Amino acid sequence: MKATRITLLALSLAATPAIASDLDLSLTNDSVKGQANFFNASNELQMGVGYAYHEGGRDILNLDFHAQGRTAIGNLPTTAGIGIRGYAWEDDNLDGGAGALGGFATLNIPRAPGLSFTGSLHYAPSIMSFGDSDDLTSLELRGSYRLIRNGELFVGYRYLNTDFDGPIRGDLNLDEGVMAGMKIFF
Fold first, then answer.
1. Which of 37, 94, 102, 167 is most buried, judged by most C-beta within 10 A?
2. Chain-centre distance of CA 18, in angstroms?
3. Is 159 exposed, middle or buried (0-12, 13-18, 19+ CB in 10 A)?
4. Which residues of 87-120 are buried (b: 16+ CB within 10 A; e: fewer)?
């Protein structure tokens, strides 16, 4: 099974430049995530797909669809978006997913060219959740520095949590931790 995941990930990465605007790779202490976004920041729409593998055999897939535009927050050039991020996850005998509503904002710092800060927040109540998920919350914060025209490095924090539906009580942090990674622009 592990060889199949590695083969699928390698083939996906090889095909990404032909169909994507950027590829985002990140690591936490317990997970690895790849995200391909199909349009650049000057487009009015953003669509993307991501896959995360969490240690212990948890698979997390996300599909994104956001309306986006350029604006300014406190005189800082900003790209912001609102929309939906769909999640599907599987972990041993549990699985679930959700259609989480929310958005993101990326603030660029003009006095420090290449420096930006991004935050995203998405939430799905029980009416928009399925399987073993009763609700789902996703939060990601990152600071990025563009080293070259088509590549940047980032550090940040990722939190993805679901509460359980039905007879199971409690919640599960699907993915949480300090992360580091890189984004490559095509």
1. 37
2. 21
3. middle
4. bbbbbeeeebbbbbebbbbbbbeeeeeeebbbeb
